[in-house]
Amino acid sequence: VASAQFSTPQRSVRVLDAPGHRDFVPNAIVGASQADAALLVIDGAVGGFEKGFSAAPGGALGQGGGQTREHVQLARCLGITQLAVCITKLDTLGDAGYPGTEAVQERFEAIRQQLEPFLKKAGFRPGAVQWLPASGYTGENLVSRSAASELAWFQGPTVTEAVDTFEAGDRRVELPFRMPVAEVLPKGRELGPAAVAGRVEAGAAMSGTNVRVAPSGRIVKIKKLQACGEPLTLARAGDAAEAGLLGLEEGEVRQGDILCHPNFPVPVVRRLEARVATLDIMVPLLKGREVVVHAHAAAAAGQVAEIRARLDPKTGQVQKERPRCVTRNQAAVLVLDLERPLCLEKYADFRGLGRITIRDGGHTVAVGTVTELLEFE
Questions:
Q1: Would you say 256 and 183 are in contact if contact means Cβ atoms under 8 Å apart?
Q2: Residue 60 pLDDT more than 50?
Q3: What are the Cα distances from residue 274, in Å, to 104, 304, 307, 369, 373?
């Protein structure tokens, strides 16, 4: 996931650019799991939005259609509640035979009318969604607008103004230290041979602090902390940080590991219970189905070991105990067995480490939260 840093009058902002192509949805999951808010970039060119928002015949999301729907659902289910929808490439309408300000405004409103009901269904409150046009080619409405442009009709915020209104998420500094490894950095002079980057989910750490690396259990020392290459004295919950680790060699830490407090280690599990919601899937979830379970920056192959209950999606009440299968747009309680251990927490204890995404064959089939940790490594 590409990363960049910039500042607005109110915020210091870290941008995580998640790829839109369906082959890179796991990368998008890693990015969204670290985010407080999302900027959904929509291709407003003729046919662009329709291609991204379409679904394959039969309604299977992400199976031959675009990725807009899947990315929206993943973002919401990974804890993002704040969203700005940025419609771009409206300046290309003239080249496609639709010149003028009126055509640009009509296209903007048409996209909004189609997308808004889906965002609401996905769980985004209308009041938490901002709508704005912008041009990456001309820079129009990124930080300012020109009265002579085709976007002069728009009276809403610029992209930077929209970002300024986002609120920082809940910073759980009072909990034991937790930092998932989102990226293993190349060997360097400043951070040494074992260097990692990620977002601190809970607690805080300083240079010289001892931490445990899970799942290996190795106790190491933080040699140095940085943020975007600049020295960092203290990394607290919510901060993006790079850490050099003393006591490890290159290759001894990997993406998906977690740095944690030595006396309060993160659970390492092979079996878990999760409350999930299926997406618009074509093939029902059955006991024994092989899947891939994604959590924060980690992923592991696994299997649906049990379907304990099917739930009412609105109330959460049990509709049926031990059903044979779970079909599209249903809620259920599953037990998942993992082929290799993952570092997980119950959602009730650490939200950022208790969300999971279930995928199969390159498609997201369900999303949910960890309710119980059943078998430890």
A1: no
A2: no
A3: 45, 11, 10, 5, 9
Phi/psi at 242 (5° precision):
-115, 135
Q: What are phi and psi of 254, to 5 degrees?
A: -140, 165
Alpha helix ranges (H) inside the chain: 25-32, 48-53, 68-77, 101-122, 159-165
Query: Which amino acid would we find at residue 216?
Result: S
Q: Average pLDDT, whole number, for the chain?
A: 87
Question: Between helices 68-77 and 101-122, what is the axis angle to 10°?
Answer: 50
Tokens matching residue 132: 């704005």
Residue 187's pLDDT band (cuts 50, 70, 90): confident
Closest to 93 measured CA to CA, from 46, 148, 38, 40 = 46
Residue 352 has pLDDT above 70, yes or no: yes
Contacts of 288 (CB under 8 A, 6+ apart): 303, 304
Is the pTM value of this prediction over 0.85? no
Q: What is the pLDDT of residue 62?
A: 40
Find the angle CA(344)-CA(182)-CA(271) to the nearest 5 degrees.
20
Beta bridge partners of 357: 294, 367
